[in-house]
Specification:
Quinone Oxidoreductase, Chain A, domain 1; alpha/beta; single chain; Enoyl reductase (ER) domain-containing protein; 364 residues; globular; seven-stranded mixed sheet
Length: 364
């Protein structure tokens, strides 16, 4: 297709280590023009960062997946389709899309290719930056609440979300409220204002089921605060064994605990950590079946399906029930490689109040 350059600007990871040592920005990277029959080429307008991005950067996941260097990082993407493979059915040139590239080519580049199954049409009411803030974290929470749990979260469900100010937590609160659930959540006091931006009435007491109940985890243990209140679900976006321990105090008989982090939220995935994680999972699965309370334990990882992104668009974003919360938009056209460093370092700090976005091109 005419108008597509032969080279592009892209971030490149040259090895494992500190972001300032192994991440560079080049303007002579070949555009991935060769497409399989089911791939599309996307002109990237915006991308966002997730913890998995810097865990692949520092080598945390090197035991699980070895990267080939140089590697273009980035998972979440929003952009415009500029070329399609011979057997692509769902898109045509000019479509505005969003998605999560998974383990394929990265999104921190002016152009990126991906199988059409990883992308969906972008919500019409979202900007490119807002759309890039959605895929990985929102789809993770969508699957956790609505496809991995049985029964799923619905009207009248009582759910406690550990880490309501995390990106996954912010989406989980909105998704749960959208279907009529009663929601409590933990976060630090400094993030109460962030949760108030979601637009729900909030309270530090649990007296009104229609309010979003906020618990400062620095001051209160939710297991003691909500002991015996028969919650249907605890959704853990923080990690650590204490979440599971406290959850057992508040879950009803046959209640469900689902985590996207597990116990080892900060450690590298060493053989020892992997063995410990598997051991803990087996132990908790055993007691979820044979324990007197029968509390279900689920370790959830994302199973990407474009149908989820389509449903999020039509049922939650385009009707205003869910919205992205953005902390900062970084622009490498203005700040060069420093924008990448700042993006990674703020994500690693854990201080972001919403999603961190990398702007790559203006919206047309």
């Amino acid at each position: 297709m005419s108008g597509i350059p032969s080279v592009m600007k892209a971030a490149q990871q040259t090895g494992y280590g500190n972001v300032r040592d192994i991440l560079i920005l080049r303007d002579d990277v070949p555009v991935p023009r060769e497409l399989s029959s089911t791939q599309v080429l996307v002109r990237v307008h915006a991308a966002s960062i997730n913890p998995i991005d810097w865990k692949f950067l520092d080598g945390t996941f090197s035991l699980v997946t070895r990267l080939s260097f140089p590697h273009i990082p980035g998972k979440d993407v929003a952009g415009v389709v500029v070329d399609v493979g011979s057997n692509v059915k769902r898109f045509r040139v000019g479509d505005k899309v969003y998605g999560n590239f998974g383990m394929g080519d990265g999104s921190f580049a002016e152009y990126a290719r991906a199988d059409e199954s990883l992308l969906a049409i972008r919500p019409q009411n979202l900007s490119m930056e807002e759309a890039a803030a959605v895929p990985l974290t929102c789809e993770t929470s969508y699957e956790a609440l609505f496809t991995k749990l049985s029964p799923p979260v619905g009207a009248g469900s009582k759910i406690l979300i550990c880490g309501g100010s995390t990106a996954a937590g912010l989406y989980a609160i909105q998704l749960a409220k959208a279907v009529g659930a009663q929601v409590s959540t933990t976060c630090s006091k400094r993030n109460f204002g962030l949760l108030e931006k979601l637009g729900y009435p909030t309270s530090e007491t649990n007296s009104d089921a229609n309010q979003l109940h906020l618990i400062d985890y620095n001051e209160k243990d939710f297991g003691k605060e909500l002991k015996g209140q028969d919650y249907d679900v605890v959704y853990d976006c923080v990690g650590g064994p204490e979440q599971w321990i406290s959850a057992q105090e508040i879950l009803k008989r046959n209640g469900q605990f689902i985590t996207i982090v597990g116990d080892h939220m900060k450690s590298s995935i060493t053989f020892k950590a992997a063995v410990s994680t598997v051991s803990s999972l087996i132990n908790r699965k055993f007691w979820s079946v044979f324990g007197s309370a029968h509390h279900g334990y689920i370790f959830h990882s994302l199973s990407q399906r474009y149908e989820n992104l389509d449903e999020l668009r039509t049922k939650y974003f385009e009707n205003g029930k869910v919205k992205p919360i953005i902390d900062t938009v970084f622009d490498w056209r203005k700040d060069g490689v420093e924008s990448l460093y700042a993006l990674y370092e703020k994500s690693q700090s854990g201080k972001a109040q919403g999603k961190l976005i990398l702007k790559i091109a203006d919206e047309e």
